[in-house]
Amino acid sequence: MNDILKQIKAGEVSGVQFKERILDKYDIACELVAFSNSHGGKLVVGIKDKTGETNALSYSEVQETTNLLSDIASENVVPSILIKIDTVEVEDGNLVIATVKEGLNKPYHDNKGIVWVKNGADKRKVFDNAELAEMMTDCGSFAPDEAGVRDATVNDLDATTIKQFLGNRFERVLEKKGLTGDAFNEASLDMICSAIAKGHDCEKILRNLRFIRPDGTLTVAAMLLFGKYTQRWMPMMTAKCICFAGNSIGGKVFRDKVNDADMEGNLLHQYDTIMDFFTRNLHNVQVGDEFNSMGKLEIPYTSLVEFTVNSLVHRSLNMKAPVRIFIFDNRVEIHSPGALPNGLTIDDIKAGTSMPRNMFLFNNAIYLLPYTGVGSGITRALDEDINVTFMNNDKAQEFVITVWRGESNQVEDLDTGLRHSGTDLDTGLRHFDTDLDTGLRHSDTDLDTKRVTLTNKEKDIVNFCSVPRTTKEILDRIGVSMHSKNRERYITSLVAAGYLQMTNPDNPTASNQKYKKVNKR
After folding, report:
1. CB neighbours (10 Å) of residue 102?
2. Per-residue confidence (pLDDT) for residue 10, from 0 to 100
3. DSSP assignment letter at 363
4. pLDDT per position as a tens digit, 298-341
């Protein structure tokens, strides 16, 4: 009996007092619908809701109630649901308990066509089409990433991104056709498509890969991965990035804010913009004993990569809300629209359980974004030395990752109340290894040659190559594929800038070619 009272307070059980409400078939049907559309629960007949005061049923009332509940579940709920009915003997009679499992065919309706869900210990009507779509997604009857984007055509997709995607997905096929390196770069998109499948152009390839639906419309996944101006068609499929001064989301002082126009684009563009936002606003911590040793981002870059990709690929596509990324003085928050899908819990994702919400998008974004596709991203992120918390908010329909920043990396400016790292207190100017005479920022830069400033990822590569490394070792280090574009972006550019050198410079394409850090004298 005490267990039932606890479940009533938790919203897992609804009580019905027989003599007052048993004839209200409609209200009971609404309770059954609400449980089926949520995570299941129990309906107890013979007990007052919330108070737990009993009004036990006689033997004949138990029979009447059992028959009535079965009828309601099959005739007053659409689609019909299966319930398990038990009786519990109490003082002066019995209680009837109808156990309702979470439904497999959401959303369920009452006989008036109204959808109900549990809201704590109560139930509420659902009016939001996005919430209905989310229910259908959870039970597998709707795939939002495979839905059509009205009026969009192949001309609204970015040829360069499609080419990069095809190059990564069909790398072995293209290698056999000799389309690698410069040959791949110089080839047109149609040439690449024809090499993959004879007689195919871009549109035919995309149709065969299911990015174009049988009715000719582009899928949501196609627009997210390849769109030139994705937000023209799906305005909320974007991200908001704000760096606050202080620790309150209500703060009105911003250190940095990404303009909406700068975030416009497909998922690859959004990913790059978000990572740039992180690297320019988070502190660098010097590692190693030498004064000039390589700096390391205060929150491991690899963890930020995993959390960012997770928010972009696994977000709910039904919720009309952007991904939100906030940097505060003491933490970083990543808000992803949609609570965890398919009954997943926080413990599940920490253990590496993978149940992708957007399966088609998930299986294809791997060829553009840096993740393995085996669902171990959160686990790998947690392997780093970070203090992170997760919040699965069913009510607000969002999943929040909070990474706490180390206090040792922050210095309080008592005059301004603003946190800063490496700041010249006399001038109030933030500088990282800045030449104060010239005002030029030169992180690890040779002032004689004025070499370009490196990103944190590039710094990591250079430091990694203190020992000669192969191309594969370098690209595996930063989690990208063995593609010519990535080799040029992350290796060849560093050689040209004078940060890396080949171990066999006379034969640049040698199979045993390695790269090592150029030591400054």
Report:
1. 15
2. 46
3. H
4. 999 889 999 999 999 999 998 889 999 999 999 999 999 998 88
Do 156 and 229 form a contact (C-beta atoms < 8 A)? Answer: yes
HEC-encoded secondary structure of 306-330: HHHHHHHHCCCCCCCCCEEEEECCC
How far is residue 275's CA from residue 63's CA, in Å, rounded to a whole number?
A: 64
Q: Residue 75's CB: how many other CB atoms inside 10 A?
A: 12
Nearest to 406 by CA among 277, 243, 279, 297: 297
Question: Which tokens is 229 given?
Answer: 């101006």
pLDDT (0 to 100) of residue 15: 63
CA 73 to chain centre: 37
Residue 118 confidence (pLDDT): 83
Q: Please state, in angstroms and as integers, the Cα–Cα distance from residue 307 to each residue in 18, 122, 136, 230, 342, following that order.
A: 51, 34, 26, 22, 20
Residue ranges in the chain whose pLDDT is less than 70:
1-13, 15-23, 49-52, 127, 130, 139-141, 286-295, 372-376, 407-452, 520-521
Q: In this predicted model, what pLDDT tens digit does every residue of 75-98 receive, in sequence order?
A: 889 889 989 999 988 888 888 899
Give strand pairing partners of 440: 435
First to last CA, the chain: 79
Indicate the DSSP class of residue 157.
Answer: B
CA atoms within 13 A on the CB side of 159: 12
How long is the chain?
521
CB 8 within 8 A of CB 43: no
Contacts of 142 (CB under 8 A, 6+ apart): 133, 136
Record the tokens describing residue 28, joined without a space. Answer: 């009971």
Please give the Cα distance from 170 to 162 (Å, whole number). Answer: 12
- Cα distances from 256 to residues 187, 279, 327, in angstroms, run 40, 12, 9
Distances from the Cα of 107 to the Cαs of 27, 51, 75, 125, in angstroms?
Answer: 18, 30, 16, 12
The Cβ of residue 276 has, within 10 Å, a number of other Cβ atoms equal to 15
Burial annotation 253-274 (CB, 10 A radius, 16+ → b, else e): eebeebeeeebbbbbbbbbebb
**What DSSP character marks residue 492?**
I
Q: Helix crossing, 456-464 with 471-478: angle to 10°?
A: 140
**DSSP codes joined into one string, 354-375:** ---SSHHHHHHHTTTSS--SSS
- DSSP bridge pairs for 122: 119
